[in-house]
Amino acid sequence: MRPDHGELLYEGKAKRVFASDQPDRVLVEFKNDATAFNAQKRAQLDDKGRLNCQISARLFEALEAAGIPTHYLGLASETWMVVQRVEIIPIEVVLRNIATGSLCRQAPIAEGTTIDPALLDLYYKDDDFGDPLLTEARVRLLGLVDAERLSAIEDLARRVNAVLTPLFASVDLTLVDFKLELGVSTTGQLLLADEISPDTCRLWDRRKSDQSDRILDKDRFRKDLGGVMEAYGEVLKRVQGVCTDPRNCL
Ligand code: UDP
């Protein structure tokens, strides 16, 4: 179902953002488009939008219940979410509990090494530059955020990890790493934004020992492992087991 919405404000790789009838709220439509490697690899995956919207809504509600401020207000349909209007901070925050992916390509760290406390990496959110790794000095140089806000961002990201790691573990999923985006609301509040889904998290199934079979996230698409939507469906099924049904917000 397509809820009533206003003009298209922004279209990204996986979502569209529309105006609503209230200035401080927007509607987010989760798309079926899948992209990887800075959109060099593309596909349409039937049902991806619904699965990511449903997973994300439940995780946002679990985070909210744990006192973490998010942009999420409720669902408008199976694939649409109502969120607070925010200005997205152009920094992608990645938390790594287990070494894999770009970390192992860029540093001599063995795949699968546990990282405790988690490694927090910052990337500049800009596709033209290929989302490069940031340093604190570069954050300052580019004037992205001040030191106080950066510290608040890092604190929020670690709190998200502290809630999501045990939540996923309780349904036999290992939260390997994940990416967060944050925004500033119309009232100046720092909020967790974007989505939290198998597109943005690496999740390994503790019920499987095979290194490929256990992957339940976008790496199945990146590595052509097949069964991408079956994996996302399994994540939703498990998350449904520990999160309440998301509220509607119309
Ligand atoms: N990630 C993301 N969007 C990006 C880059 C990374 O959601 O633009 C997520 C990715 O799914 C993984 C984590 O951030 O859960 C760390 O990704 P990594 O830096 O290892 O990048 P990759 O190996 O995918 O290039």
Features:
five-stranded antiparallel beta sheet; alpha+beta; Phosphorylase Kinase, domain 1; 2 domains; D-amino Acid Aminotransferase, Chain A, domain 1; 250 residues; binds uridine-5'-diphosphate; globular; 12 strands; single chain
Give the strand tally: 12
CATH architecture heading of the largest domain: 2-Layer Sandwich
Can you tell me the CATH superfamily of the largest domain? Answer: ATP-grasp fold, B domain
Helix and strand composition category: alpha+beta
* Ligands bound to this protein structure: uridine-5'-diphosphate
CATH class of the largest domain: Alpha Beta
**Ranges with pLDDT <50 over ≥5 residues?**
none
- The span between the termini is 13 Å
- The gross shape turns out to be globular
Plain-language structure description:
The protein has six helices and twelve strands. With 250 residues, the protein is an alpha+beta fold. It has two domains: 77 residues, Phosphorylase Kinase, domain 1 (2-Layer Sandwich), CATH 3.30.200; 149 residues, ATP-grasp fold, B domain (D-amino Acid Aminotransferase, Chain A, domain 1, 2-Layer Sandwich), CATH 3.30.470. A five-stranded antiparallel sheet has the order 1-2-3-7-6. Strands 8, 9, 10, 11 and 12 form a five-stranded antiparallel sheet that branches. Strands 4-5 form a two-stranded antiparallel ribbon. Helix 1 runs parallel beside helix 6. The longest helix is centred in the middle third of the chain and has 23 residues. The protein is globular and about 50 Å long. Bound molecules: uridine-5'-diphosphate. The site of uridine-5'-diphosphate (UDP) has 12 residues, from helix 2, strand 10 and strand 12.
